[in-house]
Specification:
Elements lengths: L2 H25 L4 H12 L12 H30 L2 H16 L5 E4 L3 H8 L7 E5 L12 E3 L5 H6 L7 E4 L4 H14 L4 E5 L3 H10 L3 E3 L1 H14 L1 H12 L5 E7 L11 H4 L1 H5 L2 E6 L5 E3 L12 E7 H10 L3
Parallel strand pairs: 1-2, 1-4, 2-3, 4-5, 5-6
Antiparallel strand pairs: 7-10, 8-9, 8-10
Length: about 325
Amino acid sequence: MSPGRRLLVSLTLLSAVIVFGVVGYLVLGFEPINAIYQTFTTISTVGFTEVEVFGDAEKWFTIVLITLGFASVAFAIGQVVEFVVEGHLQKMFGRRRMDKAIAHRSGHIVLCGWGRVGRSFAHHLDDELEVVVVDIDESSLLGCPYPYVVGNATEDAALKAAGLERASMLIAALATDSDNLFVTLSARAANPSAFIVARSRAESTANKMLRAGADRVVNPHELGGARMAALVAQPHVSEFVDVVMHDRELEFRLEEIELPEGSPLVGRSLADADIGARTGTLVLGMRNRDGSFTTNPDSGTVLSEGQILIAIGTGKQLQNLKSEADY
């Protein structure tokens, strides 16, 4: 039995003894206020005098009440002390604060799985992004810097508790492909607009995840192999890209910026917008609404609504570009 349940049982038992005492004294002819007063003074063993005349029946009943009351009070006190000392009370209130924080989040990332892949994902994530973690193993969540839900991510209840309906993205980083496939199916049904990234170990499973609704499927083993091959072929280029993408202390970085509806840049060419001179950034490429890429665009390339610019620059320069794009 959990400490919380034992505490509830002890308090219920104490309440039952109090009711037993009050009802018993009422049956013996006590006035209601006297019955309540006599019950509490007897159970607490403070030793005050009797409030009404005691006969043999009253004395025997009081003996029974003292025995039951002392046992129930001692048990309740022990459970309260254990609950507080072991941190269960603090944990309970902490859980409530965490649930309240999750309930107020919107547009966040739901991360399913706090294993090696999940931790690595969180390590490379920008600090300003909000994350809610879902994992079935509570012990693995110790030290997790984000609000979390202890539960099976393959169950709808756990995803709902993490606020999936309000989330902008879901990361399926569980240990097995079958679990990640199930999470992908459930997440797509619960939030059709969420961007879903799923972890996969096998190519055949990756295709199934895409059909189930995943927007992107990542195979860590393939990525690791490609990374090693790139380091062998072009080590300096690979390390430069890694530094630009992941080194938070470096001011110079790579970022994607979407052109929203009504952006003043829409309909203008790169030459006309003069992005480089106005913002200091360099547009390396752009992703079009049909999913295709335009790499190394020339000055005559016309910008369109929904296009995503892939630009490189300092934090301030990229912020200038966002302002130009009407963020």
